[in-house]
Amino acid sequence: MTTKEPIELELANFGPIIEGRIDLRPLTVFVGPSNTGKSYLAILIYALHRFFGSEMPGGMRNPVRFASESGTPSSTIKAVGDWAGEVFGSHDEPPWEGRSDDALTIPSAVARTIQSLFSEQASALADEITRCFGAASLPALVRRGKGGQSGVTVRKPSDDAGSIKFEHKLSLKPLEFISTFPDELEFSLNGETSHSRTLWELERIGRLLVGRPEAPFRYARLLESLIDLLLPEIVGALHRQAYYLPADRTGVMHAHSVVVSALIERAAMAGLRQAPKTPTLSGVLADFLEQLIGIDSHPHRRRKSRASQAGKIEDAILQGTVLMETGEAAGYPRFAYQPEGWRETLPLMNASSMVSELAPVVLFLRHLVVPGDLLIIEEPESHLHPAMQVEFTRQIASVVNSGIRVLVTTHSEWVLEELSNIVLTSAVPKSRQKTAKGNGIALQRSEVGVWAFNPKKRPKGTVIEEVNLSASGDLYSASFDDVSAETYNKWVTLGNLAGSNA
User: Fold this and answer.
1) How do residues 151-194 score in pLDDT, each as one tens digit?
2) Which residues of 13-51 are buried (b: 16+ CB within 10 A; e: fewer)?
3) How far is CA 368 from CA 200, 202, 296, 337, 442, in A?
4) Element (H, E) at 446
5) How far apart are the first and last CA of the chain?
């Protein structure tokens, strides 16, 4: 399994969305009028990544550990113990050494145990979704109006066309989470998630378990290691980290220093006076702020090369460098912009709105996001001249080509038209691609998914439909032409009226 393989999401009566089915592809684009649910679905996808992500605190691992340690059933102990004895009890070497195949099979008894643990996570998943939305409760996210089923279904297709290997269905009202697994599970020994450290941990715990059914906490650790290895198979690309850049990121960047100052002041006065009440942020905004404040605490993810994706955006659009400097207080960064040819730097709040808009993209690409992760960018066209919207679309495609998955919400016809060009470039022979405008940046049609959020009057709400390249002109069309035609016809009518009155 690779993170390029699509994951299917089906929604019903969620927020303003009546129904919709989408594939999460390397580049996923949501387009449509305002207030139709684009951000709603983007936040839901972020919440799913947060929950299923193997590196996320409070995600799937902790509920599984809690469920296992709080009362592991005897049947679970026997199933896991039998598997550990079979795999590790009769081998001095790791069971994957010298194998001709590239997968280790998990028997049905252990698979059913893992499936049951997934199905027990309804409350934990609901909590993460409501946190990300900043909602009072999960039922508050149910579409207003007619009744019916409300929820989201995640499907991971198998290699056979039309068949589903894994399905996870969350019903919002009543709250219920059901995971459907195949009879047997297997994980790749040579795939992207087969980290030697995790395999070593799995073997170490497995050998400790052989003949020791009296240690249930070790069974929890074994299950945890197994789930780490199986998550890519069970939930696909949702096991990778996601980063959400909200539409109001410019204001957050400008307010960043004020927020940091308030945090420092509050810490200094802790215990001396009652803490003031702070307005509640949605989870996506809170996470964005937290990631900005702690952006330099991930040295293993840092990418400083000018040849990196961040450097390409600085060179092609910003014509300068976004810098992270040491702030007045240790541990809190300060962001600045240095135009090309300048020795001095500008505080980000004194730079142009375009720089402030793209600075988080540069910072996240340089310090946090790695291939396989998902970067969600709301309205990438904000504060950008049409020419820069086109160039930024090319840079987004370049980011996708580097192995990073991207999801964008947009209202821009320039973004869609340049994306059409990028897809059509893939049909041009490679020897001639760089002669075309756009520096030869190309994406295959299968790597791009464009989804229109179409409002309906009866019943009132949104229906999501895929937008394909049109037969005439090969462009992604999303009703922008209707707006252009309407304004042109109005101009003609007014001109005729003004001329007849002359």
Assistant:
1) 999 998 766 555 568 899 999 888 899 998 887 777 666 555 44
2) bbbbbbbbebbbbbbbbbbbeeebbbbbbbbbbbbbbbb
3) 27, 28, 9, 19, 25
4) none
5) 70
